[in-house]
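Objective 1b: paired records.
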Amino acid sequence: MTEYLLNRDLQTGIYETFEFDEATGDITIRRWADVQPVLDANKSFHLESDGKGKDAWLAARIPDNIAQDWLVRFGINAWKGEHWPAVKKLLQDPEWKHLRPTSFKL
């Protein structure tokens, strides 16, 4: 199987690759990102701060590929205001707790 890098977004850390399986002729395009730096920043912020900024509280950091996953899996667009109740519910789910750098109630 041969894999080629199609795109790498330095700002978001998102990679896109193209794979071709010579044996079957299958083509796979994958899109992925390393979200560990965001999760580490959230954990660090949680330990060092109460979440209060100068003018606002930081509720969450949602990497682009997680937002895309929510859109595909649940039909929830993290960047649309009318989807806020569903985003809020996901952010309160223990599965997604590391997207929140603070523990104040949303």
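Objective 1b, second protein:
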Amino acid sequence: MASDAAVISFVLGGARFNGGSLLDIARWVENGLPLDSLDRVMRLVAPDDAKFVAAIIPKAALTRRRDLRNGSLSVEEGDKVYRLAKVWAMAVRVWGDEADGLEFLRRPHPMLNSRPPRRVAVGSAAGADAVINVIGRGAYGGTA
């Protein structure tokens, strides 16, 4: 089974980032993830919600950056994308299926104040940790 870092790096950049470590991912975020990293993660965590991307970057800013040939995300935006990739990878590993992982991330959860896990994860690093804790409960016999 691939490490979480390997899965996350693949989610963020496909073959270009494949096999990266957590330190590699940190460097990519600091240097500005490409917009296609955002697109890849959105297809995984919010394929049913075209407006969800605004939780990461305002529509006007995204449009401007898409007009640039090499537009990239800010560190803050990239960190949000990384957090979503991280919780998606863990949810898929625990539930064993992309559709089930997506369903968990999409549906409001009582242990997250009835908020959808993907919304909680994108809000802050502490929120992503809370989502990971809920996923962990599901993995290790608790209530998720």
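The chain has eight helices and no strands. The two ends are 23 Å apart (CA to CA).
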